[in-house]
Specification:
The chain has 196 residues and is α/β, with parallel strands linked by helices. The protein has nine helices and eight strands. The chain has one domain: 3-Layer(aba) Sandwich (Rossmann fold).
Length: 196
């Protein structure tokens, strides 16, 4: 990872995408450890976490994670899941957070030197290019070590740095033992991972 200690950093976590990548690598993320890792790499200005939540359920399994992140250094951006029936009559949910993430990246690009996007979504290639034209460095965190790879080749090529999620595993992995709030996504995000 190429970071400079004097750089102002902002993190943008596509929750469903990062969950899918970590699941593919067979580990749960400890979000406190993730935040601490990047706070040591530069001057961490802001860390955003994006996810869709089911508003109509009495209890959402994602709520403990969202609440923990909110109280522990992340700016959480949520929107309600949309439910629809597909052409085969199956009930589906949709909760894409790409627009919200892109708007926040463009706004924060004026205030930071280095943007770190936790997603492999190829739709972010143009966003990365736009931010680079503003003179900002962009790192992308995802994985090529799953089948299929979780990162789109065009996004990986566009980024200034590609950070292989599996290489961070030892530092950001949730330790064994009882599930803590910051590591809840294994159960919680599974139902939303397909909606990304």
């Amino acid at each position: 990872m190429l970071f400079y200690p004097q750089e102002k950093l902002a993190l943008f976590v596509d929750g469903a995408n990062l969950y899918g990548a970590a699941k593919g690598l067979a580990f749960d993320i400890d979000y406190k450890r993730l935040l601490e890792l990047f706070a040591r790499k530069g001057l961490l200005v802001r860390a955003f976490y994006y996810t869709a939540v089911a508003e109509d359920q009495e209890f959402s399994p994602l709520r403990p994670l969202v609440d923990w992140l909110d109280y522990n250094g992340f700016s959480v951006v949520t929107k309600p899941l949309k439910e629809f029936t597909d052409s085969q009559g199956r009930r589906r949910v949709k909760g894409n957070m790409d627009i919200e993430l892109a708007i926040d990246v463009m706004e924060m690009a004026e205030m930071v030197d280095h943007i770190v996007i936790f997603s492999g979504d190829g739709d972010f290639r143009r966003l990365v290019e736009a931010v680079q034209r503003k003179g900002r460095r962009v790192s992308v965190v995802s994985t090529i070590r799953t089948q299929p790879p979780m990162i789109a080749d065009e996004l990986r090529r566009q980024a200034d740095n590609f950070i292989e999620l599996e290489e961070l595993k030892a530092v950001i992995m949730r330790e064994g033992g009882p599930r803590s709030a910051q590591a809840v996504p294994a159960a919680a995000q599974q139902q939303y991972a397909q909606s990304a």
